[in-house]
Amino acid sequence: MEIKIGVISCSGEECFGGTATRLATRKILETIKTDESVTICLPLFLAGGEEERNFAKEYPTISVDGCNKLCAKRGTEKYSGDVNGYIIASDIIGEELAFSNITSLRDLKEEHNEAIDSLVIEIEKEINRILKK
Ligand code: SF4
């Protein structure tokens, strides 16, 4: 069976860090690791979507959180088991940027796109690390 990694972003709406996790995860799924990754809708997962919960039990998962509140990691572990890898955007792109209140795609500037790309690189590294195991 082809191994797919479940990437779960916190998708926080309140700050750029959360927005960045969603955009970086989408980029991974759509252009970088199209055959090896799949995402799970965190709100549906938390609300009790059976398919989502079964998926996360069955496949390796990586949580991608905007900050150290770790909503995606905690939610996944509460309902499904330990994640195989996790990323905290504020550790990678810096707290100032992660906690800034840019949440609209219209407001993204070069520094934001660069931050998203650095998250993409980290997610890709985590996927490769898990696939090699
Ligand atoms: S991890 Fe941080 S950025 Fe993401 S939803 Fe939770 S509080 Fe918001």
Into which percent range does the helicity of residues fall? Answer: 40-55%
Inertia-based shape: globular
Biggest β-sheet description: 4 strands, parallel
**Bound compounds, please?**
iron/sulfur cluster
Order of helices and strands: EHEHHEHEHHH
| Helix-strand makeup class | alpha/beta
Estimate the strand proportion.
5-15%
User: How many helices in DSSP terms?
Assistant: 7
Report the count of strand segments.
4
Rounded average pLDDT:
92
What count of domains describes the coordinates?
1
Low-confidence stretches: none
Structural features, described:
The protein is of the alpha/beta class and 133 residues long. The chain has one domain (5-128). Helix content is 55%, strand content 13%. It has a four-stranded parallel sheet, sandwiched between helices. Helix 1 links the parallel strand 1 and strand 2 (37-39). Helix 1 packs across helix 7 (110-132). The protein binds iron/sulfur cluster. Iron/sulfur cluster binds next to helix 1.
